[in-house]
Every structure is written in C-alpha cells, then in structure tokens.
Amino acid sequence: MTPSAHTPAIAVPRKKHRNLAQGVVETITASIQQGVLKPGDKLPTESAIMAQHGVSRTVVREAISHLQAAGWAQTRHGIGTFVIERANPSLAINAESIVTVMDVLAMLELRISMEAEAAWLAAARRSEAQVAELAKILGAMQRSVARGSPAVDADVQFHLLIAQATGNRYFVEILSQLGNTIIPRSRVNMPQLGHDDPAAYLERVNREHEDIFNAILRKDPEAARAAMRTHLSNSRERLRQAQQEMETTEQASAPT
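Given the sequence above, the corresponding structure tokens read:
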C-alpha cells in the first residue's frame, strides 16, 4: 500500500495516564479508530510525538512498540512508521480460555510450529536496530533472573520482537492476542510443578533465550529455528512431565 503523502495531526487529550507510553498508545489508537489516521498514513515523527505529548523518546519508542505488537502499525526502517490494516477480529484467540495445564501444553504445541519458523525468518530478515532491541530485552531478562524475578513481561517482549523481525505482521498479531499467556509460568508455577529450584529453572530458560538471540545475531536461520524449537520443546517437556506426575499422585491418593 502506498503511504499517504500527508501526516494527519493527532489530537492530544488532557486526560492524565499513570503509564505515559499507554497514554500515547491510547491517543494514537483512538485517532485510527476514528478515521483521523487511516491505513497507509504515516505516523508523526518521534520528535513530533514527543512534543505533542511532552514525553521522552524512550516513552515514544515504547508506545510504537506496543502499537506494532497490537497490529496497529508497522515500522519501515529508514522511512517511518505507518498505520496498517488489522487482522480480522474473528480470528482472535481467547487468551482467557488458556487456564489448565493441558491448555498450556496445547498452546506450546502451536507455538513450536509457529515460532520456530518465525525465528528462521527473523534471522534472515532482522535489522541491526531489531537486534539491538533484542539485546536490550535479553539484558533486562538476565538482570531479572539475577534478582530472582520471573521476568514474564520481558519474556513476552522478547518473543514479540522476534515476531516483528520477521516482517510478517500476522506472527505479531497472533502472539499479541495471546499476551502473557505465551509464557507458561504466567499460568502455572513451572518450578513448583517440576520440583525444581526457581533460580535454576530461570537460568536454564535464560540460556535458551541466549541461544536464540545469538543465532539471530549472526543471521543463522537454521540455528535460530533449532534454538527456538529446543526452547519451546523443553518448556513443553518440563510441563508434560509435571502433568504426568500430578496425575500419578492423584490416582495414588484416590479412594479405592
């Protein structure tokens, strides 16, 4: 689609938001929904959004990342960020329906097939800026692991950034619909189920992320695909074994 030559102005509401980035996201999203910004329109520059909202460049970039993840916008490096058509909402996956261990296992099966290919594409297509963003998120996860924090939000962002690096918005659309449910430990206590040390568990997961990142960094699609498949398959296997143990325990304790 050919971008429009003009860049429509975005009205800035007076409402105050606790999260500055979310305030920018809500304003731009409202402009799109109201037709002020249409598919193909170029968003104002970072500097213009900073001036309009009185926020920092970091806040603007976080907001743009959220808009991309939600399927509202796409950045064309060296050109700018443009409004895009969103996927048909009838294709939406209800993240709230993913509640049981079996639900999480089923979702991991879907992710293995989808995200392994996403990693392959990301390694082939990624930009230097996208690698820098991945490195930043990976660093945030490493610091969280050192603090003993589960780092669910950073983990989600890591996978979303890989989806964005594919250049295919449908990968982003599907993962965005799932939100934090793509991370098993956001739904179930993985270390507890597997009788595992939480710090050791997080360290293993972090090493798997590093393997994925390093393959994308050196533009090795096959290694990226293998690393992502290993990461998600390990999560599935850890959860499957925990589920089997739970079922065995329940059967043993059931009255005869």
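DSSP finds ten helices and two strands in the chain. Try to locate this feature in the token string yourself.
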